[in-house]
Amino acid sequence: MRYNLSRLFFMLFSITLAQQPSGDDIIDKMVDIMSPENSQGIMEQIVTSSNGQSRTYLLEMYSGNKNEKALMRYLKPTSVKGQTFLMLNNGDDIWTYFPRTRRVRKLTSNAKLQGSDFTFDDMSSDETWKEDYSVENLGLESLNNVECWKLEGSKTEKNTSDYPKVLLYVRASDYYPIQIDYADPKDRIEKSLYLEDIQIVDGYPTAMRIRMKNHLENSETIMETKEISYSWEPPEGFFSERNLKK
Amino acid sequence: MIKWILVFLPVFAFAQVEFLGYIETEYDRMNFDNQAYNFGYTKLRLDFESGRNDVLIAGNINIQKYFGKTTWNMLDFLPNEMWESAFNPPGTPDSSLISDYPLAISDTLYLDNLYARLSFSKADITVGQQPLSLGSGYAWNPLDIFNSKDIMDPTYDQPGVMAFRIEIPFGDRNTFDAILAPAESWELAKKMVGLKSGVGRFDISMHWAQANRLIPYWRIVDYPDTNTHYKTMDYLGITTVGQIGDVGLWFEGVQTMGKWEHNEFVFGSDYTFSTGTFFMVEYLYNTLGAEKNSTQFVNYMNYLMGETHSLNQNYSFFMIRHSMTDFISLGLFGIANLDDKSIILNPTVDWDIKEDVLLSLYYSQSIGEKDTEFGLQDSAIRLRIRAHF
Fold it and tell me: Which domains, ranges and CATH numbers included, belong to chain A?
């Protein structure tokens, strides 16, 4: 009898394992739900330093071809007004435009965004998750009373990111992520991305507030969505160097 | 200039005009030849812009008021042996000896830029006094025949250039670019035509340019003197910028065509570490500068007048910057004259003290022999506050 119970437990455990989606399956679903064809929005970026001082920036943001292309333009404050960034090829190619000199320059993709905890790599497409990390599903875990798939991503050889390991918490109900932890080479969680106030916009779950917390520097950057639409259609040539200057 | 204001004034009267700009105050203290000089300025830059998308009219007015020392003796900035023989050749009577070449700096009020940009379905045309910023280099831009950069402050606003410019984008990452900066004759007008394209993770552009430029005096066999000579010259240029892995790389070079051979190029690289520390290095080679151990008075004059991008031929620029907090960054940049082995080191602090208010503090320390480009100076300190509105 004891043998049979053990065997039954093992079988149930195996069935559970078999039903558990793989890390890649979850990433596919996560990328799918986070990648509307196009988007247009206005976001407020609040940067808070370790001593509590903060600065607020206002940006208009556009994305196309499921986040493969993006354009961001600062609207406020006046010191950076008009400075624009164009990201193509899932953030591999980045250009910036300085309105005072009307100069366009190509940037390296690991540059930091205007005094914030976000790099351009952070802002680029989710499509490359599977290329950048080999992802393992560590099982279900409750985070802030939300049942989540906990995934561990290990950097692939192709990935030049500074974070060898990432931990993702993806809602089991709709595969939308609510937290991503970035571990440094010493396996310390250097920064965490929190996706909060998730609302359904044009049929897509959307985090109205995205918070990047740098645990080592104790600084924080918040991106609050002021306006967002997924029904916007980019005009021809919108994601181009020419449009940077407009 | 008044004519341009009258042309654009009706447009401003009927269109919604947006005003922005900044107020900047700078205090400088320079230690030089055992003396300290205090000087600086307060500047208002008022930008205005009207229109959106198809027609844009924009410009800016600058008002700059100087304080402290405003009259300089240019000869103080040259090694004595450079100018003594040119100004006081052997046999000059004592009563005629020259030791001053004064330069007075006056308060200014001027229309810096005033231009209209017209966007058509296939092209953008910009007409008027406009910002032109060309090339991929940071400290030097060999390709930029329209501006001369202050190497101690390479990203500072450049004065506007009166020009006609047409940009025609085609394909995914290609642009045809033509610029004409008119002058009193077609020969003296500066012209540039460029074709930019994208190849992998690099932007590459090729240019042809024509400008009435300085000829290195040592190339003039008919006039083996040390005077300055000019000739309309054709240039071929190439720029590229991109990255390999996470390392940014760029190259910008020009080569003259024909008899008056001159070439100049910049090679640079940058990298941002995971800590946020940014590092950049550039190397300049410029045959319009003086060769090693043969710097003469005319080289200094050409350089100070902006006729050449460097006094000598081989230079290096480096910069390292680290954000201590989100609002305070520390930096160090240096410029080395590799020919006369002098260097100037500049530790910097940039502090975003309030929203739209930036405070910058620079210290400069020169290293080198007294008869070298940077060794001639001692040290300097600069405090600059800029408030945007």
Answer: 22-244 (2.50.20.10)
